[in-house]
Amino acid sequence: MLRSIKLQSLIYRSFLTSSLVPLFAIELLLLLLYFGVNAYLSDHHQNAFVEEVVSNLEGISIREANLVDGQLAEVSRMAALMQRAHEDFFAHPERCKGVVPTGLFRTHPNGALYKAFDNGGASLYFSASTAATEAVLRKAWCSEQLDPMFKALVNQNPLVSQAYLNTWDDMNRLYPFMENAPVQYGSGLHMEDYNFYFLADKKHNPERKPVWTSVYLDPAGQGWLVSVIVPVYRGDFLEGVSGLDITIDTFVRAILDAELPRGTSRFLVDQDGVILAMPESVEQLLKLKELRHPVAVSAIRSTVEKPEEFNLLKSSNDDIRRKMTDVLNDVSPNGQYSLSINGADYLLNSQRIPTTGWHIITLVDQATLLAPMSELHSISNQVGFVAISIMVVFYVLFFLYLENKSRHLAKRVADPIERLSNLTSSLGDQLVMEKLTSVGIAEIDRLYGNFNRMSSQLEQKTQALVDSETREKVRRKETEILERLAITDRLTGLYNRRKLDEVLTCEVERSNRSGHPFSIVMLDIDHFKNVNDTHGHPVGDQVIVELATLLREFIRKIDIVGRWGGEEFVIVCPMTDMVGASQLAEKLRVEISSHHFPVIEHLTASFGIASSMAEKHYEPIIDRADQGLYDAKRSGRNRVGVRLIAPRNDDGALL
């Protein structure tokens, strides 16, 4: 028969024998392994660290390239927006009215026509080869209409330093205003001789899309820069080229001077291997000197590109030349290369920027990168010797401590188990069981916890069910709130543009199915800009909120009102023809004009209405309503405008 032994004695004996012998053996083995492993790791850890850095560098470089691509794509979108505005300007010369102000334009002694003073807009320059006729003066005067867009584009994007329009007859309109334009440009500025013009013409850009130039020296004196340019056509005639400039100094400050790890540098090259922009650290490394700041180089007669030494494909360093050839040909699928410059080894990562085809190059100095690893290896050896000395002292004390600790441990483990054994023997004898408290030993505490949960399992499950139902109600409420926020305007509480698009699409489909028309009422606050300029935007917002309340009060129950944008509102009138929409618009016009608004007292609004004509999409109806609104504005405001048919151009397409 197996002889029983008390748990306390078993733990005491087992602890001593199972702890001392293996512990001594393991510690001795660890000491022997420490220095061997440390030597092995010091040889291989550097390679692993470099591989990790390469992996991280690739991720960081991809993110940076995506960031730069997003910024450049935004500038391209701005250029396309400017292109549409300028083509609209040339397509509608009749919009320019008024008399050319006396003294605004003057003729320089060198024969060039120029804008005499800064009126807050762009400078203007006509080459001496273009006679200052009445038509030329009117063109110069009318082009003042373009200045607000120039100003907005330059001010809203920190990358953009200049916006301009160059025309076929050698006119240059440039924002910000350039002092002494005829002195800077000289008597003649033949646009077709510059890459910021001819790269956008029909030969080089038949698709008429935004085009990025290579680096060139700015005739306006801003130093090295790149431009995104767009052609401006009137029909098939190239009226000119509009562009947005980014100086190299701006590239460095906005993109390349970001905080980087020690020994890391970043620069930009174009698809031909020419360095577009680089910080001073790369200048020193490649022994080049970048011209960043504006320089007064006047009368540049044609495109001046960067010197040959800035082309890395022609570098005197064979390794740089070969690696840059690989970079531009995308030899490495992850963009990773190694490079030797001036006897130092570098990690190189290249990421292509899709919008322009440029490459953002990141260099990491391997010596700087691995310096902490060498220092760590030395420290590790010192730590090993110190550890041996400490361990000798430690184990003398440990032997004394372990014997005493084993006795206390045996008692600490055995006593709680004996207590649980006694308690379970009386399980069922009491209605309320004693709650066992933690003893600090994970397994025993878990056993105690299981025992305690037996008496309260039903209560816990019930509470869990209540909590689950509560969470589900909260989730549904949050979903409802988020859905409501997604379709409403935050300022007015009306439907937003997104919701109105859905409503209009549904109305078009319903109207086509049923054959019943629906109508749109579009209204715009008259002279709202004066409200903002005079009383400030908070008052303007208050006016918009007040008007939204007024619209909700006086429209019909079946009508749907929303904020189309800014001070413009749209009312969708289901099952309503043009007569009904006109009556509603007139009613609202009268109510608004007679309403007392806070601070500004009174205001008026102009209306445009349109009804469906079996269209497949709602955009033509919106266009007719918008044209009606335009007619109301042009006819004096505070009235209702009606366009039965949207205007068309000579080809029959809707304007």
Model description:
This protein is an alpha+beta fold and 655 residues long. It is 49% helix and 17% strand. The strands form 3 sheets. Strands 1, 2, 3, 4, 5, 6, 7, 8 and 9 form a 9-stranded antiparallel β-sheet that branches. The chain has a 5-stranded antiparallel β-sheet with strand order 11-10-14-13-12. Strands 16-17-15-18-19 form a 5-stranded mixed β-sheet, sandwiched between helices. α1 packs across α9 and α13 crosses α14. The radius of gyration is 39 Å and the shape is flat. The mean pLDDT is 83.
The parts where pLDDT drops under 50 for at least 5 residues are none
User: C-alpha Rg, in Å?
Assistant: 39 Å
Mean pLDDT comes to: 83
| Number of E-state strands | 19
How would you classify the helix and strand content by structural class? alpha+beta
Share of helix, binned: 40-55%
Tally of helical runs: 16
Q: What oligomeric state best describes the polypeptide chains here?
A: single chain
Task: Using the alpha-carbon principal axes, give the shape.
Answer: flat
Largest sheet: 9 strands, antiparallel
How large a portion of the residues is in β-strands, by DSSP E?
15-25%
First-residue to last-residue Cα separation: 106 Å
